């Protein structure tokens, strides 16, 4: 597909965290708002400056109303590898596209943004003065300008080797800022109800964006915990629902996870969390239920399933079982009692999750979940697959030197049929996939080795 002309070019200033998550988030949001990710930029590794072609300013603004990975977006008027190249680029930009923002009745200001270098005020003024050739006719207003323009300079990524001259220089009209403030305003530290594994606010919003959650969607979390992922989806206008096998967590009972608090209070629950942020109207319900035995009638109910299954580290992996499944040597329970302490292997958990998503998601709906991996053994073939689900993205977040978790995003592309129930377990991959079951042992073996190494170093 041919790239649109320079008039459609925008510059994204990205945040420098969760680097692997940034590109899938921007692609998902552009797709959500009717755009398409188009760029001639080769890589998007660690650079905070991305040049994109976006169909309209409206789509650019909608993108920034959602993203937590991008700081700001600018309509790009010029770009060069030096100041001289930038000036030539600006002189070739059509004057008729500048005039609406530079006429005599307008007010404006110019901001200087440098990455990996600090400029003096004198250097900043010098750079602004060098832009006098642009047809500015309005008045400068530093407090409340109608239009803001930015000169952005990129001095690379190495703070120990800062070049004298920038690698790239950009100039553009500021359009909008992203939603970075959500990370602080929804911080888990300020939340009414939390648990041992409550999801970081920033990652919760990233997951909702990867899932293309939008207004009036129905979003489900089968391992809901304290409901952190429901909050992010509800913030974007989706109705939220969840289940969890832990009765105490669902009902907000038992020991508190907060420091200096022994027991949970009378109103510490998921509904109260949504009420805290003015989102209670989006709360459908949360039930005590076993993800290995979903109680749903056949049908497509959900626009997105966004979840963080337990890995067996801080929270145990459990499922309910029948009398026949009780291991030998374990005392039989009364007929009326269903034990909840049976082991639920990670491989079984993820197969159940994918099957459930394939059955209950609408076509085009997305499944977003975390997959824990032991990094020395990880290969892409270990990621679960399903004939009804297409892999959209696979992003790594490191947990330790030897473990990580991968944020997997999948989209339903085919209607579920009964024969799809187990067809996604090819014999040659089953052994690879069973490796997830020993994640807990590998995690703690690594922790034990690290502690032993540290103790040895301290004794030397």
TrEMBL record:
Q: Which residues form the Ribosomal RNA large subunit methyltransferase K/L-like methyltransferase domain?
A: 190-320
The question of whether S-adenosyl-L-methionine is a record keyword is answered with yes
A Pfam family annotated for this UniProt entry: UPF0020
Species the sequence originates in: Equus przewalskii (Przewalski's horse)
Q: What is this protein called?
A: tRNA (guanine(10)-N(2))-methyltransferase TRMT11
* Organismal lineage: Eukaryota, Metazoa, Chordata, Craniata, Vertebrata
Check the record and name the CDD domains matching this protein.
AdoMet_MTases
Which SUPFAM superfamilies does this one have? S-adenosyl-L-methionine-dependent methyltransferases (SSF53335)
Give the subcellular location.
Cytoplasm
